[in-house]
Amino acid sequence: MYEKDGEKYFVVDEHIHFWDASPENTTNKYGEGFIKCFYDYHKNLSPEEYVWSLEKYRKYSEEDMMHDLFEVGHVDVGIFQSTYLSDFYNTGFNTLERNSVLKDKYPDKFIVNGSFDPRFEQKGLEAFERQIQEHSLKGVKLYTAEWNGDSHGWELDDEWSLKHLDKCVEHGVKNIHVHKGPTIWPLNKDSFDVADVDRVASMYPELNFIVEHVGLPRLEDFCWIGTQEPNVYGGLAVAMPFIHAKPRYFAQIIGELLYWIGEDRILFASDYALWQPKWLVEKFVDFQYPGDPEFDDYAEITPDIKRKILGLNAAKLYDLRVPDELQLVTVGEDTGFDVTEKPATER
């Protein structure tokens, strides 16, 4: 929880990792290049006092994570987004198995999402179903540019991907998080294109598609998709640190998202350990648009809108119990949301 000026905020960090990119776990030059590209994002977009050494960044400790998220980072619940990158790392980069150790140890602090790769076809589908049952999954993280042998990417509407999404529907795994943002070397930028989100969102209205990194650098494409697909959400991982490094760019991003998809479908994320939630939460609570005409057509960001983005929207997707004092004042049903508000497209 974060409190400032009498306002309280329930914080759900919907995109975190407990990765191992140590030299001992790195398979090849691609794994080496991947983590160094990650580190460049971390170093170039963080305030100086939050920049780690590369050695620590490659493999940080459980103690580091618990401190940065829960002791000082204002986070109430963190959601692990499992990513394997098995072609680059011997035991995987940020795996369900590794993340689940912390989930089991701190069950009230973490949610762990699974993952699937449709290129494993029937064998992968069977393994995915076991994963769902063993871990009671509520969500998955998909990485459509991940390498798998000679294949350097896949699309959400590929035949075997649809079979996996059918399993999600069958077992109630309703939250589909998809990396659709900046590329990381050596992955292919075009494999992160947002077009396939549009296709599957229409096919699976019972699923929620959370577009991580809000499609950057394809923000406009994402916004047009999100405004016509009511089950498409925007995850702010990677967008958030621009609140420090390029605040006018962040203002444009958040202003466009609020206009096109509205305040109920935007989710806060630090992308830990790319960035630490403490400074992101604090800067976002303080955030106001720059005071010049370029931003005059953007709606005000109120404390209640910030509450939704920082935690209440994700809490709703994952059926998390939010303490009464941290909910919004509601009209009608006890949802934590003002049911009298108009949809974004009607404002």
From TrEMBL:
Ranges where the Amidohydrolase-related domain occurs: 12-320
Gene Ontology molecular-function annotations: hydrolase activity
Annotated InterPro entries: Amidohydro-rel, Metal_Hydrolase
Keyword terms: Hydrolase
Keyword Hydrolase: yes
Origin: domain of life: Bacteria
Protein name (database record): Predicted amidohydrolase SSO1643
Organism: uncultured Rubrobacteraceae bacterium
